[in-house]
């Protein structure tokens, strides 16, 4: 029995005509379940390289099918992560705002058409099910928890006109107890507030990291105007009060401005308000039902500070947080729900790992991909990469680490990670500045050998496994100075424990570091920079390695260092535009109040995602059809070395921002004459 769960949008990567607001569709993913067990899962952003992709998860579907060795026609049920009525209502809303859009207003028909176009096979509408958004969240959590019975809470910005669901899971059934309307959304409470801190959609976790620098007391009374707690575990949120109140009460921060203490205090007050509401709901329903286990999902369940406080509160004996708690996890829940309905429920086992994505491939395949970057990389094959990587890290290196299948969800859990020494506090500032290129206050997570976790962190007696970075826990006071790079300002850390059984390669590199330093912990953060999703393929890893200040890269059995590439090495690369980039010329006023034609490259449907480029580079990129050898283009358009170097530097800058692609020239393409790649 094969069930395919989907999340994401109802348009293709090349189309902008169906770009519904990200609050409706985002975090596309595909999950394939066979007889109640997950066999393959990946988020579309990992493959199409668009963060929080709101497109049809075509590549994710293709990966799942290829992994299982099946065709789309072999799938017994395809489950989409929202109700049909909700999707149809959103399509009607789109038609009103874009009356010239040509499309069916029937979501099932539209999905069937898209799948037929992409996979070349007709899809029987009877095999497609539209599944309640919050029930999908609920199934994703309870089915993976291993609990025979638990309370289930799902909370996010919104879906199916709701913002949350409270239910009881028992055996193979989930019984709803209460729902929370969209206008009482805790996700929107968070989002509406952080707008006045210079942040927006998908930035919520950044404010969670800022909150420990603040004091909630100065704004506690102000936040009391934004929500109201009621009997029986109920609450109300007054979203319409947030904007007018904050505009009168604080200095609004614009993006790029420094954070004042007022902004930090506001973050602390927001976090406190969220925690107070969630505790109010859960304390009441735990007392009424007598249930002492909790399953959590929904985007707000990624608030690991809240999760850690719930765990330590004593309200529940055990808590499970589904590691892909955001909307990508709805693809998981939808597939599991359909599998259960078709008579193949998930075995009652606790989820141990989520390494469900694409694999690196064989050593030979990896080696060939690395060798293609001749001139840019020094490559060494090694029989003991764990020891050599640990040596690099102990000597101060910050490295990319890539092994096996990629993780499903937003956390790098040791297969697509950046690793560093957790001890020097300066490592946090260094990695934020030169690798991640993000705000300096942002914390990093420690990965600790499971058997050593209690020595360094204050954990509940009943728990020794924290494999998914879902909980913030206190660092033992005696260890805080030692773990300067991973201990947050409030003495806590977002913990990942690493089991030798579930990830032996990652366990080995941490253990090798322990043998050298006595510390069984590594700093772990996602392998990406600030403008891209986590890397998935070897090509992704090399791109990020060459466009950040990482010191080394370990891919499978290979140790990789950077070489100083010559101009000829750069010239041998192929340049192309990714599917999400487009070139534009616009008329605009300059600083001298003169109107000029300006050139830009956009990585989204609007000018907000635009980067200004030179007219010379604009002409170059306009000439490319597919991809072309960089040296051929430069020789035609930049006849002298100074122009050559100027354009090459501009291209490198765009590559760092992922506005263009640079990669080794394919053998077939490199053999083509210049006239087939570019013409004057």
Notes on the protein architecture:
Strand 11 (293-297), helix 11 (304-313) and strand 12 (318-321) form a beta-alpha-beta unit. An eight-stranded mixed beta sheet has the order 13-22-21-14-15-20-16-19, with helices on both faces. The longest helix is centred in the middle third of the chain and has 29 residues, at 261-289. It contains 24 helices and 28 strands. The N and C termini lie far apart (56 Å). By secondary structure, the protein is α+β, with helices and mostly antiparallel strands.
Short description:
The chain is of the alpha+beta class. Helix 8 packs across helix 10.
Physical arrangement of strands within the biggest beta sheet: 13-22-21-14-15-20-16-19
Which stretches are poorly predicted, pLDDT < 50 over at least 5 residues?
668-680
How many whole angstroms does the radius of gyration measure?
25 Å
* End-to-end separation: 56 Å
Mean pLDDT: 92
Strand content: 15-25%
Structural class: alpha+beta
Kindly state the percentage of residues in helix: 25-40%
Number of β-strand runs: 28
What would the principal axes of the Cα set say about the shape? globular
